[in-house]
Design brief:
With 441 residues, this protein is mainly α. 72% of the residues lie in helices and 0% in strands. It comes from Mycobacteroides saopaulense.
Length: 441
């Protein structure tokens, strides 16, 4: 069991010879007390991450499929799941100061954690490539720019920002969130010229026979950020306590993510989305079509907005692989970022969305097992012994993933993510009960 780390003065720590928190990223050790950051600073890291066009797209797809009120219910349910899930993992991170890889050692074993950490650290690089390619695609469709050259330039900028470290993620979050709120509100005001709020409230959806189920919609909301949400410790380990870690993650779930999705849903319900069946609530085209000052602002918005998610994903991946390889975060950010940018420029990113979303449904068991093993069960005296590989954790992960895939294929009315969490929890609890009996014999 670990004890909560209290914060101390940065000045005192530097005077004592500790490294300054502005330069050290503590990839391979818990963040020490002197380097912890304020609640506002850590919350800013999470705030701008989900407040992105991609979430507007997904929110719009949900409302297009289910109608306004049922769509809003799906968004609320999905964010409630993320709030509890990411909040619990963030509490653990703030309490221990450990990043995701270090946290996973305790649950999956000294060697076993490598498989889990490598899996997630690679998936988020896929999301980095996807969002970098999306930057070029969005500006090609909306402003007529060359998609590949735009993706290349944007990717280089995203890598450069990531190299600054956790400080840059705080700043970009503080810029990205207000800008999203401003332009999202402008897009809604523009849409109200040709529609009314009553029209939006009465919107019944447009998907018809192809509409997704409520369970599938909730899964879509959860899967959008389940990967980085599971790796929240990479960000919230900088919190001064477990409680502050929990509240910092609340800036994203439910706040930032809900706002981003609701705006996209309202855009669709008002009839202002160009292609709601494929692009959901993407409101960039409406801003650029208006002309004037909105054109340069909208273009800057794309870079800041998608740059926010790209830098966060690349930071996740670099921190994860730094723990696995023993190297520093920044050189790995350059290497992994270069791979992601290359995939974006080659156009491979366009093949990623369905694959990454599918992977998203097998991720929830990982965090579920971590929460049970390190937060819940120790309160009841279930403290596991250290080992190279903890097979009960891997068994629960496999069971949860298998249940989620089965639900995806044969029970589409259910939420894959929730099925995965419940199955993993039941299997892990049963396995720990059996393991504890063996340990006491």
């Amino acid at each position: 069991m670990t004890t909560e780390v209290a914060a101390s003065s940065d000045v005192d720590a530097v005077a004592a010879g500790a490294p300054e928190s502005g330069t050290a990223e503590y990839e391979n050790e818990p963040v020490p007390a002197h380097a912890r950051r304020s609640l506002t600073s850590v919350a800013a890291v999470w705030l701008g991450f989900p407040m992105i066009l991609t979430c507007a797209v997904f929110g719009g797809l949900v409302v297009y499929s289910l109608g306004f009120w049922r769509g809003m219910l799906a968004i609320a349910l999905g964010n409630a799941v993320l709030t509890g899930y990411v909040g619990a993992l963030s509490y653990l991170a703030g309490k221990t100061g450990k990043n995701f890889a270090l946290t996973a050692i305790g649950t999956f074993g000294r060697q076993g954690y490598r498989a889990v950490s490598a899996f997630l650290a690679t998936v988020v690089i896929g999301w980095f490539a996807f969002q970098t390619g999306l930057t070029g695609s969005v500006l090609a469709g909306s402003a007529g720019w060359d998609a590949r050259w735009t993706a290349l330039g944007a990717g280089i900028c995203y890598v450069a920002v990531t190299l600054i470290g956790i400080r840059a993620l705080s700043v970009i979050g503080l810029v990205a969130a207000p800008l999203y709120l401003l332009l999202g509100s402008v897009a809604i005001v523009l849409a109200l010229r040709h529609s009314t709020l009553s029209d939006a409230l009465e919107y019944s959806g447009g998907a018809g026979a192809t509409a997704m189920s409520m369970g599938a919609a909730v899964t879509l909301v959860v899967a959008c950020f389940i990967d980085s949400g599971t790796m929240t410790a990479d960000f919230t380990r900088w919190s001064r306590s477990g409680r502050q870690g929990f509240w910092a993650s609340g800036a994203a779930f439910p706040l930032g993510n809900s706002v981003a999705m609701v705006i996209g849903g309202v855009i669709v319900a008002l009839g202002a989305a160009r292609s709601p069946a494929t692009d959901g609530g993407n409101f960039l085209g409406a801003l650029i079509d208006t002309g004037g000052w909105l054109v340069p602002v909208a273009i800057a918005f794309v870079f800041v907005n998608l740059g926010s998610v790209c830098t966060h994903c690349l930071y996740n991946g670099a921190v994860g692989w730094s723990q696995l390889t023993g190297h520093k975060m920044r050189p790995l950010a350059v290497l992994l970022g270069s791979v992601g940018v290359l995939l974006a420029v080659l156009g491979v990113w366009s093949q990623f969305e369905q694959w990454l979303t599918l992977l998203g449904v097998v991720v929830p068991p990982i965090g579920t097992v971590l929460i049970l093993d390190q937060l819940v069960l120790p309160r009841f005296g279930f403290v596991a012994r250290e080992s190279a590989i903890r097979w009960e954790a891997f068994g629960a992960w496999a069971a949860g993933a298998a249940a989620a895939l089965a639900a995806h294929l044969w029970a589409p009315q259910l939420s894959d993510a929730l099925v995965a969490m419940v199955a993993a929890a039941l299997v892990f609890l049963a396995a720990r009960r059996v393991a504890r009996k063996g340990e006491t014999v």
